[in-house]
Specification:
The complex is a heterotrimer of chains A (80), B (162) and C (754). Chain A has 80 residues and is of the alpha+beta class. Chain A has two helices and five strands; from the N terminus they run ββααβββ. A five-stranded mixed sheet of chain A has the order 2-1-5-3-4. The longest helix of chain A is centred in the middle third of the chain and has 11 residues. The termini of chain A are far apart. The longest helix of chain B is centred in the last third of the chain and has 19 residues. The chains are: A alpha+beta (80), B alpha+beta (162), C alpha+beta (754).
Chain lengths: 80, 162, 754
């Protein structure tokens, strides 16, 4: 699958805007990214959300990622 | 402990005595000593109207009246609005018109709206808005509150005629 | 049991109608119990001593005189709240915000606290605490705090998100960048370029109920907390973490909540009350004064924002860039980042970029306020849209429609939008009679759009059916806007029974699984989803009981309109069984009938709105009066339209207050000068007209009923709607909110002089 990183995650990580990753769930995606970008580990543990085909998943890391889905790593959102 | 003074009052038609220090507000005395927690504290400085009560028929913010000033006087609070188990038309219309969200300002609005309708049974929108301008609500934008008061005025006039 | 969250178009019986709220009678009779309305045997009164300085080193705290005062039962400082937060800097910040640790970081920062037998004694004791301060240089303005010469608030903070990694500490905690396309190429393509700078002042959520709680900690580590909060489960976890209590042993009960708007998502006085109670071994009640609420809780960021737009002559925007600077108070936040994510979200702009700077200043720790960070970004961008429209000679609404985001548009924060409602709200605005209402002299009309994400989160719900067929629904999301009514309606809808037969309650933390806060417009969305699933589980049990009663396979039983119906071949003559009949026999058919659901509700669906505002500006005084106001917003599906309208009207009014009057005013000494409702003026009844609403329903594909969050978006457009209306009324473009009479008058005078 391909995942795009919001530019705020790319600074200091030498990461491309879009990466090829082997992952079927959000949890697997997080593990892959943490392996590849150790600097991102802290951010990945609490400050991110994943958009799959335009729907934002903030919390449910069991969510499966359909093949061919548009996947974005974006900052985690809080509400009021 | 500060020294207390005994205060004799009428609250919602009943004789009530309480003892409070000379520097305690009537709001605190009603809440903490008489147990009428429908009198709400929003600011303690007379700016929000959540603690509105009627004191000898006059609408006041009970947070800027001293407890000892209530000696010999008659107090009405939100707890006294419904009579014989029936909600006051203002109370029913506030529910029916969804005129409350969090509800913390509601007792003060009801007391203030009753004071308005007691002296002016047929207020126009602007009169309602100015009469309630001393009561802050942060949830509703006042729209449904004004509508509930308008509906009550109409109901009460109808009832008065019948 | 797995549940499908996909939207299914169906006809509703209960949902979408208007029912009275179950808490209504308690709230109109004064019986409802809020944070300050609880008491416990032997309770003490707690009070906090706060820093009078914007920034100071705390050299010494001497409590010995206060301790000797008769009636004082416990006094705490930071030493009574040891740092147990480990490597969790976010929790460490919360702890330090609750009680200063060596340094006071803003005017109002808690320094010590007292519990005494009564209010008067506690107040007297505070005066006897002797604190030796050494004043330090301070900074309260966001732009000044970014200067290299500004006093540094935390020397542990180095700007994140910049290359190369900084070697010196800074008040800029992070830089965020977001966007799509090639911004330079976009501007090169443009026929017209407009640029403008904006400032917004700090505002407070302004809930009428101050923070209040009643805490009781026993020597064995069991504890109870009664508190006004947007999320008692989260408060439990945070307080347990800060005080070293076991989560299961801290029972938190949420009182009725007198407004929150984000400000009651954060702990302030609660850990202090628990620590005072632990030390005194007595219950401690704490109620903040309004002064304390303003000085030490809540507020949202003040900001400084630059926007530049480039467009073709036909109105198509080719490039947009915004630079957003948000202060988060004395602790790092991600508020500018949220501004970046929302700034251009309403539009389809091929080349767009947002740069955000999160900045620290000597002000209280910023907390979420209704669609946090979005209103300021929208003020800037939506004002710039009108400036652009004027340059283009086009109608402001047509420029928006020309560039509006649709399903398939790339959102500025990356992904492609699913079905969204912004275009529909703009079209509804264009067709609305408000747009044709006649304007009088000195009046002007403005339109603006707004976006908010909405969020889901962890949710747990219990549904228990009594033997008389009435239903208790226990939910864990605090009801801030009427959600008990909406959730009872959803349960009634699913079960096929009357709304009056369902009673929804907010359960305490010992009675239900974890629930996240009621924030991000999630209450009805996520608890609604969990309620649907819990009801569906209960229906499965009801069907089993019916099958058992009839002696037929459960596969042959269907649930229709509140009844079990035998559907299989040969069962045609079986009379249907009502929920009430099945419930009455439950004791003998297998015991209580219930449904439960624990879910992480994600996919809350974007919220979009467009507002129309008519304003009259008094040329003598600069005072602006709202003459007409209309909110158009996509709700996905309005469960109870009364409360959806209430959210629209309330949010719009908060935005109007921000636009016209509300602001934190700091003196040169760094102290807040207007911590009260007299000088911090929120809108009152006579300031406003009726606020018209139009609910659009573009279903959220990720909710069985199509529900989107509705609570927050309505605060986003008003600042710009008002600014655009003032511009059209006077010819003056106000770039600084609030657009208070002195600011408008100065701008009018400058226009006359110019």
């Amino acid at each position: 699958m391909r995942v795009s990183l919001s530019s705020s995650f790319r600074v200091g990580n030498d990461a491309e805007a879009t990466l090829e990753v082997q992952a079927e769930t959000i949890a697997q995606l997080m593990a892959c990214l943490a392996d590849r970008f150790p600097n991102l580990r802290e951010v990945l543990s609490s400050d991110v959300a994943v958009s799959i085909d335009g729907q934002i998943y903030r919390d449910d890391w069991t969510q499966t990622i359909p093949s061919g889905a548009e996947v974005y790593l974006i900052p985690r959102i809080e509400g009021g | 402990m500060s020294k207390s003074t005994l205060v004799s009052t009428t609250v919602n038609g009943d004789a009530v005595e309480f003892a409070c220090p000379a520097d305690e507000s009537l709001m605190t005395a009603l809440r903490d000593r008489v147990g009428l927690t429908g009198v709400k504290e929003g600011c303690g400085t007379g700016d929000c109207g959540a603690c509105s009560i009627s004191l000898d028929g006059r609408l006041v913010c009970s947070c800027i009246v001293l407890g000892v000033e209530a000696e010999g006087r008659s107090i009405e609070t939100v707890e006294g609005l419904s009579q014989n188990g029936v909600l006051h038309p203002l109370q029913q219309n506030f529910i029916d018109h969804a005129a409350l969200q969090c509800g913390i300002c509601t007792p003060g609005f009801l007391v203030a709206a009753k004071a308005l309708l007691d002296r002016n049974p047929n207020p126009d929108e602007s009169e309602i808005r100015y009469a309630l301008a001393g009561n802050l609500c942060r949830c509703t934008g006042y729209d449904k509150i004004v509508r509930a008061v308008q509906a009550t005025a109409k109901d009460m006039r109808k009832k008065g005629r019948s | 049991m797995a549940h499908d969250n996909s939207y299914v178009d169906k006809k509703f019986n209960v949902v979408g109608t208007r029912f009275n709220r179950p808490d209504g009678i308690d709230k109109v009779t004064g019986k409802a119990r809020y944070g300050a309305d609880a008491s416990a045997p032997g309770q003490l009164v707690g009070k906090v001593l706060r820093s009078p300085h914007a920034h100071a080193q705390i050299l010494k705290i001497n409590t010995s005189k206060a301790e000797k005062l008769q009636g004082v039962k416990s006094i705490i400082t930071f030493e009574d709240l040891p740092d147990l937060t480990g490597a969790d800097q976010g929790m460490a910040d919360i702890l330090e915000n609750c009680m200063a640790r060596g340094r006071a970081l803003y005017d109002g920062h808690a320094v010590a606290a007292v519990a005494a037998v009564d209010e008067q004694t506690a107040a007297k004791a505070l005066k006897l605490i002797d604190v030796k301060y050494k004043k330090l240089p301070h900074v309260t303005d966001v732009d000044e705090a970014m200067l290299p010469t500004a006093p540094i608030i935390h020397d542990r903070i180095f700007t994140r998100g910049v290359e190369p990694k900084p070697t010196k500490p800074s008040n800029i905690s992070s830089r965020t960048e977001m966007g799509n396309g090639d911004i330079e190429a976009g501007f090169a393509e443009a026929d017209i370029i407009v640029e403008h700078s904006f400032k917004t002042e700090q505002t407070h959520q302004g809930y009428i109920e101050p923070h209040a709680c009643l805490a009781s900690v026993n020597p064995d580590g069991t504890a109870e907390l009664w508190v006004t909060t947007q999320g008692h489960f989260v408060f439990r976890n945070v307080c347990a973490g800060l005080l070293g209590l076991d989560i299961a042993k801290l029972k938190v009960t949420s009182s009725e909540i007198g407004g929150g708007f984000g400000g009651k998502t954060h702990v302030w006085v609660e850990p202090v009350a628990l620590a005072l109670s632990r030390k005194a071994n007595r219950p401690v009640k704490m109620v903040m004064s309004r002064d304390e609420v303003f000085r030490a809780t809540g507020p949202t960021s003040s900001t400084s924002i630059d926007v530049k737009l480039g467009a073709k002559k036909n109105g198509r925007i080719t490039a947009a860039i915004a630079e957003l600077r948000y202060q988060g108070g004395a602790f790092p936040g991600n508020w500018a980042m949220l501004g970046c994510m929302t700034a251009f979200a309403c539009y389809d702009i091929k080349n767009n970029k947002s740069i955000g700077w999160d900045v620290l200043v000597n002000r209280p720790k910023v907390t979420a306020y209704r669609a946090p960070s979005a209103p300021m970004a929208a003020f800037a961008v939506e004002s710039a849209m009108d400036i652009l429209a004027k340059e283009l000679g086009m109608k402001a609404i047509d420029v928006r429609l020309k560039n509006v985001a649709r399903e398939g548009t790339l959102a500025p924060y990356g992904p492609t939008y699913g079905p969204i409602g912004i275009e529909d709200t703009l079209k509804a605005v264009k067709a609305h009679p408000h747009m044709r209402a006649k304007l009088k002299p000195n009046q002007g009309r403005g339109v603006a759009c707004g976006f908010w994400f909405n969020i889901g989160g962890q949710t747990s719900t219990d549904l228990n059916i009594g033997v008389d067929g009435t239903v208790n629904l226990a939910v864990g999301t605090v009801d801030v806007g009427g959600s008990r009514s909406s959730l009872a309606m959803i349960a009634a809808e699913e079960l096929g029974i009357d709304y009056e037969d369902v009673k929804a309650n907010i359960a305490d933390t010992t009675s239900l699984g974890h629930n996240d806060m009621t924030e991000g417009s999630r209450g009805t969305f996520s608890s609604g989803m969990a309620t649907i699933y819990a009801a569906r589980e209960a229906i499965e049990v009801l069907k089993q009981r019916a099958a058992q009663t009839w002696g037929i396979p459960v596969e042959d039983v269907a649930w229709e309109a509140g009844h079990a119906v035998a559907t299989g071949k040969g069962h045609g003559n079986l009379p249907k069984l009502s929920l009430r009949e099945i419930a009455a026999k439950s004791g003998r058919t297998g015991g209580p009938i219930a449904g439960h659901n624990e879910v992480t509700a994600d996919g809350a669906g974007m919220g979009f709105a467009s507002h129309i505002c008519d304003v009259e500006v008094d040329p003598e005084t600069g005072r602006s009066t709202i003459v007409r106001y209309t909110v158009v917003q996509d709700a996905g599906k309005a469960i109870n339209p009364d409360y959806v309208e209430g959210q629209f009207q309330g949010g719009a009014t908060q935005g109007i207050g921000w636009a016209l009057n509300e602001e934190y005013i700091y003196g040169d000494d760094g102290r807040l000068q207007n911590p009260g409702f007299l000088d911090y003026r929120i809108p009152v009844c006579s300031d406003l007209p009726f606020i018209d609403t139009k609910i659009l329903e573009i279903p959220n594909p990720n909710h069985p009923y199509g529900v989107r969050g509705v609570g927050e978006t309505s605060i986003v457009p008003p600042l710009a709607a008002v600014a655009n209306a003032i511009a059209n009324a006077t010819g003056v473009r106000m770039g600084h909110a609030p657009m208070s009479p002195p600011r408008v008058l100065a701008a009018l005078d400058a226009l006359d002089a110019g």
